[in-house]
Amino acid sequence: MNNSAVSIIFPVYNGSNIPNIINKHINYLQKKYKNLEIIVIIDKATKTEINNIKREIKDSIVVSNDKRLGKGNAIKQGFRIAKNDIIGFVDVDEHIQNSDVLKIIEKIEKNRVAIGVRKLEQYNSLIRKYLSKFFNLYVKILLSLDIDDTQCGVKFFRKDKIQYILEKSKINGFAIDAEILYLLKKNNEKIVQVPIKWKNGSKSTVSFLSIVEMAINVLRIKIRK
Q1: Phi and psi based region of residue 115 (left: phi greater than 0; alpha: psi -120 to 50; beta: remaining)
Q2: CB-facing half-sphere around the CA of 115: CA atoms within 13 A
Q3: Given this model, what pLDDT does residue 120 score?
Q4: Res. 1: pLDDT tops 90
Q5: Which residues contact 67 (CB under 8 A, 6 or more apart)?
Q6: Ramachandran region of residue 210, left (φ > 0), alpha (ψ -120 to 50) or beta?
Q7: What are the structural domains of the chain?
Q8: For 127-171, where are the E strands, in sequence order?
Q9: pLDDT at 201 exceeding the cut of 70
Q10: Cβ contacts of residue 106 below 8 Å, gap of 6+?
Q11: Directed axis angle between helix 208-224 and helix 176-186, to 10°?
């Protein structure tokens, strides 16, 4: 059993099967870490959904927002609440496997920042594959980021590193991932990229319009510097 204290933020928007997905991660990680802080930030959920999450996910901190404030806002809310030295966020979908979350957390033992990276070949949708390929190339060129996959929904940090991000971050939407990595790069931080297995089958909450919005926000990050 590892004595490291880990805070995990789960940003949630109007999804189904949320407690089941989160509990699978918790049950798996509790075998390795005895000190886990679970923070669930919910955007625009019904009272029934909120009560269900509070009831089903034991010993968790649950924060609900009446409006859709965005993934970036949810992550930053969670960062401000988190108390442990290792802090990260995991998207609440069925693509990300428990073993990969553990693998990324373990990398933090000897590093300051570790992120998941998917392979495009793992997508079963050609549209999603080429949209991801375009967006990754767009971010690499515009922000000069040598990162193969900025948008993978599992990233972990040492607390002292993420505090810097909170002070500088302006993005509240899906482009928060790219902004975090860009700000870390500007701070000369080493980012460890961890290959993960991508589980196809479930739908993504990221629409084509979301991708357009992300592209605009990445441009704003570049202009703002």
Answers
A1: beta
A2: 20
A3: 59
A4: no
A5: 43, 44
A6: alpha
A7: 2-224 (3.90.550.10)
A8: 154-158
A9: no
A10: none
A11: 20
Taking the C-alpha atoms of residue 158 and residue 162, their distance in angstroms, rounded to an integer, is 7
How deeply is 9 buried, as exposed, middle or buried, from its count of CB atoms within 10 A (0-12, 13-18, 19+)?
buried
Instruction: Check: CB of residue 214 under 8 Å from CB of residue 174.
Output: yes
Instruction: List pLDDT tens digits, range 202-212.
Output: 555 556 677 88
Q: How confident is the model at residue 198 (pLDDT cuts 50, 70, 90)?
A: confident
Q: Of 148, 136, 142, whose CA–CA distance to 211 is shortest?
A: 136
Q: Are 121 and 157 in contact (CB under 8 A)?
A: no
Sign of the CA dihedral running 34, 154, 186, 146: positive
In this predicted structure, what is the pLDDT of residue 205? 54
Residue 60 CA to residue 86 CA, distance in Å, equals 17
Residues counted in the chain: 225
**Mean pLDDT, rounded, of the chain:** 88
Q: How far apart (Å, rounded) are the C-alpha atoms in residues 207 and 173?
A: 12
